[in-house]
Amino acid sequence: MTETKHEGTIVALIAGYRYAGKSLVLQYLEQAGYSCVDNLPPRLVPDYFARGKKKGGGPWRAAVAVDLEDLVSAEDEAARDTGKSLLSLKGTLAAAGHSCKIVFLEAGETALGDRYAASPARAAGSDAAESARRDAERSALAPARAAADLVLDSSYASPADERDRIVALMEGERSRVETRVEISSFGHKFGIPQGDVVVDVRFIPNPYYVAALRSLSGKDKACADYVLGGEGARGSLAALISLVSAMEPAYALQGRPALRIRIGCTGGRHRSVAMAEALGAALSERGLDIAISHRDLA
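RESULT FIELD:
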């Protein structure tokens, strides 16, 4: 990775949800040579860098976890605009000659809940109150998330991966992970697997009840033609192609290595296999990285 030279300090402004891992990613950035400060209110950030310059030009690379809780609880509605506050801070630092980007750390509800449960705060609060706090926080920080140059989901990325993507962003490169679309067929009678998108195709007429097709699988052309011959199957396939095509860039932008699509029928031999193969072929033609498997075909 080639380092880009800047006249001023390279500044990563890091915001995000409580328990999303802001302090942890700061530790990893510090190991990468960043000067890091945790929980600094926005109003104090410009002065921090101004004082740093007086002491010797300031740090070459810096990361600041911005504490937005005062803004969230402000009585003045205008003052609660977290996005406007971050963009204003970014502009102030840019005017002082710094190269500045905003990074927002988030995580899914399950991950945030698990981290809260493992924290000392759990003993002093209730799960219901914490859940309500998270809901309010998501709403309050939505403008800050929208203002970010990079959004990272710590449910899927390790702190080291997050550090690498932040460093890439600060050096002027837009970090984009290649997300593989993992398509797998399955049979409902053998259990439902976990996935990002799970689709039930048992509404499609079953080739099992056609004597000439029963011994075939969805990988055989005659069976696949039968499965995909109906209007419902063709429309569902087209909708799946559009859905996955829209999801893949967002997954890649968040650094998720895989988008897992699970397609199920009764036994996992005919309908789900045909749909999985057809979906994979269509997405491959669009240039996506595809992996197809059939859990219950055998």
